[in-house]
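step=predict obj=Delta-aminolevulinic acid dehydratase n=323
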Amino acid sequence: MEPFQRHRRLRNTANLRSLVRETIVTVDDLMYPIFLVHGEKQKNEVPSMPGVFHLSIDMLEQEIQELESLAIKSVILFGLPKTKDELSSEAYAEDGIVQQGIRKFKELSPEIVVATDVCLCQYNPLGHCGIVENSYVTNDKTLELLAKVAVSHAKAGADIVAPSDMMDGRIYALRQALNENGFENTPIMSYAVKYASAFYGPFRDAADSKPQFGDRKTYQMDPANLREALREAASDVAEGADFLMVKPALAYLDIIRELKMNFDLPIAAYNVSGEYSMIKAAAQNGWIDEQAVVLEMLLGMKRAGSDIILTYFAKDVARWLKG
């Protein structure tokens, strides 16, 4: 009997390593975020997010063809409105930009799963995720509008609605409104554990949603807190959530693991804009191997317990996995 174990026996060849591999990332794990804008022939790169574009509805046919060629099966839609107002009217308008995008996806590719971001921050001039009164984001009045947004998305054909606002009681409000309008089979992907993170900067450029005063710390979570994450997730499960999301992902792998161990719903991880842009910038400077770093990062998210990864790298990853 040898005095030590030879763990390297199982690492001798690529095929042997593949045989004993415990965790894999596949294209089925990926959900691709898309930013929609009004106008025609609009395909404008977001300066802080290389490879990510603002797309007008007429450009979606080309986009969908590319997604289908890469076997990407799910997307999440964000919209930039034509005009903004205090009640975020376009967020729940029948002809709103996201509603148009949903219908175009369902017309051209009914099989692609379309999730939609349910929030108000892009649609109101103050850039906050709810109705603002006396410089404070009100909770219960905001719920009424969020419910209208979710129902309007479901009417347009959304497969999943995903509230990202972090108002208390939002899952219950959405579930009740969806059920009352005949959409009891539309699932809710809750941004259950969304931290007040420094990693969102490039997204706020892409979505034109930077707060015009203060910050979002009165409704998004303190990055220091883990037990609070479990309380938030438990509330959303009790209110009727069908998925639980952790956002951001990279600095919160422990939170993903805790949710995986404590709840039996599918767990989503949002690989956010700051995580994306840092890697893109380092790769453009030749400091890292982009493909190797991205695949390792997503593998870590999957190993931590995520069943779904929302990532701007989805197209790149799909190509790498095919190759």
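step=describe
The radius of gyration is 20 Å.
step=end
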